[in-house]
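Progress narrative, work stream C.
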Amino acid sequence: MFFTVGTSILVAPTGLAFHAKQDAWMSCLIGIGINLALVWMYSVLGERYPDQTIVQYSRTLLGRWFGGAAGLLFIAFYYLLAALLVADLGYFLSTQVMSDTPLEAMAIVFIAAVGFTVREGMRVYSLTAEVLFPWVAVLLIVLFLPVVNEFDVQMLQPMLEFGFAPVVQGAASFSMLQEMNVFLMMYPFVAKGKGKGRRNGFLAGTAIGGAVLAVTTTGSLIVLGAELTANHLYPSYALAKNVQLGHMVERVEGVLMFIWICSVFIKTTITLHASVIGVNQMLGIRDPKLLVWPMAIGLFPIGLMSYTNAVFTTTFINRYWTPFALPFEVLLPLVLLGVSLVRHGRRYDRLSGGSS
């Protein structure tokens, strides 16, 4: 759930409104459906190779050279994603909250926290997410309930003014922002549980996170309007500033900031850890912890070089991220699944009693 929410709770409404205007809520719902379909595909791959990461079974399926190249591409994608998340956090805090604090200082502190957490291992940040989850759920209710009085459903009219194509385009853009295939690096380390426990957990977390994003997007549309949502870099943060309950509860944007920082922290930790695991499996290093700090430090220059200003950031997210992420999130996993079905379909059916 935290991974799905990630940076999307702040930037997803912008991209959706940019493409689909007042129909962005439709795009969000379709995008959630696409995400669930992708997660199902990822879980099929994960269950077919329950003790391997995507880097490992890429080599199993495509051979040493092609599979190794695919594994390196996945690692580079995850590592770039971690760097972009660092830049996202620093850019948001330095422009919206702490304008007198250099972006570099916040990025260094954040990278240090993420690096330390990755060194401590999956159990530590998994338990951290469990502790934070109920608090975040309560804060989401506190954030959105007071805004109900300002809802104007007329903001969603006219429906499908520009046809269905922009809605589909917005849905594709939305679905590529969650990058759920990172969990294929974590799949072998998750307790199998009973039956399809891993798959069900994967789908449930994606659905809950998607519901949060759907509420955020719809709230932004019916309070701020499609035009302001599309033009604002962080529309949900602007939405939080409109929260007012009498003269007692006002300006609760700090609640949204806390939720977002928690989500970005978990997502950055997972993506960096996935990168470390991948590099370790490619190089065969005895102690993967030796890679953590060098790779964590590398996030700093890459992140700072990635985002130069607000216009560039908005353009990059709305227009270029989807075609860039599509091969890693859809095409390559589809190729791996297809090759797996062709080469190992019958063998895995016998081993699993037909459940695969």
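Work stream C, second folded protein:
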Amino acid sequence: MLDKGDNRAIREVNRSIILDLVRRGGRISRTELARRSKLTKPTVSTIIFELLDQGVVREVGFGESVSGGGRPARMLEFNDAAAAYLGIHFGVRATTVAVADARGVIRLVRGRPAVHGQPGRSMKEIRLLVAEALRAARVPRSRVEAVGATVPGLVDHESGTCVLAPNLDWRDFPLRDALADELRVPVVVNNITQASAVAEGRQGAARGVRSYVWVYVGSGVGAGVVIDGRLFYGQSGFSGEIGHCPVVEDGPACACGRRGCLEAVASSMALSRAVHDAVARKEPTLLAAHGKDPMDTVTIAAAAAEGDAVALRILAQAAEHLGRGISFLLNVLNPEMIVLGGPVVLAGEAFLREVRGAVARHALLPHGVAVVPSTLGDKAELTGAVLLAMERTVKSVRIVGG
């Protein structure tokens, strides 16, 4: 016999099933919901009555007349304005806030320069940035159901504490609790690669793929691991820190304090440092005209496309190191796909070919594993943050088919 807790859990599951079908189905009748969900018509009617009462679903007229002269069914539609969700990305260069509707569609993004070394100050600024974004989106604060936040560092999955974000100079900061205090709504916190992996599986290059790894290559290097349709957090939420695996013995210093890490030799910062070193050595290069200005990967890729020897060498070295790091993932996890995201991917198809070649040289069994660029680009972190905020209230935990 089921106790009250079991009955409540079953009701929540049934409600999530119906809500998901309405959200995805456009205009849909109660009869069709019962057919697709395999729930009884009375159960569906009870759930719809509650959703109508809450304003989550609305009736939008009648469907086509049925054969035999029966009355046409009342049609239902998901109410996009019933709720709002916020995605917050604490990036190395900027802090950004996305306002999304009840479907998770991002309607507006606002940003400010990042604050390093002072997470408390970041919390005060985020309150102002959220207010600005909601005002611009014309969304009342009362409509916000939950917030998803991402940070480039180690996040304890249970407590929501940012244990270490070296590129932000954050350490042991209770990010989830601090955001909840500032914003007065439920908050979920994830590493940016974990959030991006969720987004890529729902809406991007890995849609429909059950096991894949999303690899971020930008100011840092990290991975979000999805196994059998579920995000893999590890014991505390620290999975995917491929950027801090050594790939070069006694190599350059890394922000984590070690030497030769993948992040130290393949990130955008590593590429910029390599350009500056080449210019300082007065090597003949098209990049010398840029002097001491930071070098972005698009500029390096453009120079490489023009045949610049220095740019070609720098990209090839980074691709070799990245391919070696990815080969570790293939050997250990045997995924179906590797998705590359982040600024370094902007170097283009020539860079991707170099990465694939390095993977083929270093991985035990590289064949059959696609290495593809993200189709979400710089939207991945915020999209994933919003989707994870929605999971906080909808409890839709599957990535594949989500």
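The first strand starts at residue 28 and ends at 29. No further action is required on this item.
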